[in-house]
């Protein structure tokens, strides 16, 4: 009897593993749609035309650091959301299977890109530092994504809201990569710009509104989410400016200092930083009002019966 139960359990987990693989693949979609051609590298060993650069599963480049974060964390967040929505039907170890599928794809993409880029770079200390930084940054993004996946899928409301705030800001990066592909010459539309700019605030507002504010933990999670909306754009700008400054490629300390200065300067309250916070609050209030109305309607129908 035991010999049959193990295969049956494994078969039951296959759809969850596939869910993780599919979610991670959706996360990589903005990069997949570009053709996955490695961007030109400042430290490439030989002169190579853009169309002859190798195919890679992640966009390793000092100019695309935030896109890597968006691709990896968003895929994990998608897996977490679907897992939470289907929670009552989960067999044992379902979340483990989802996580294995998600992280498996992401680690495969990271290692394939690391090996391919490593084969083509110059053999010097600057190239080693560059490649190591991209590798560690990708692994850190995978770990953050795994945390987001588990919290969204399984944590009580405060933890899920906090994780959703991280997912929301990364979703903005994902949408930016999807709507404004690398090397695209098309002029961004106003609607696309608005979607990229305001979608994190809307996602956070919906998450907070659904969870509600009925406990201290939920209120603190909502505050954390608002802080993420404020701090994350400054952090991403600092990473992009510091990491993308070519003249500092051989001076990591100066690069870090520039990034810190940009981060502090970008944190100052401006209309562009305050409007997303206002949108998040407005969406939260709207979702809370709708939820309250729906609950009252259900109670009224029960009372009539």
Q: Describe it for me?
A:
- By secondary structure, the chain is mainly α.
- It has ten helices and no strands.
- Helix 3 packs across helix 6 (157-179) and helix 8 runs antiparallel to helix 10.
- The chain starts with a helix and ends with a helix.
- The mean pLDDT is 88.
Oligomer: single chain
The global form is globular
- Report the order of strands and helices: HHHHHHHHHH
Low-confidence stretches: none
Q: What is the count of β-strands?
A: 0
Helix content: over 70%
Distance between the termini: 48 Å
> Which class best fits the helix and strand makeup?
mainly alpha
**Largest sheet data:** none
Q: Name the average pLDDT.
A: 88
- What's the tally of helices? 10
Percent strand equals: under 5%
The radius of gyration is 22 Å
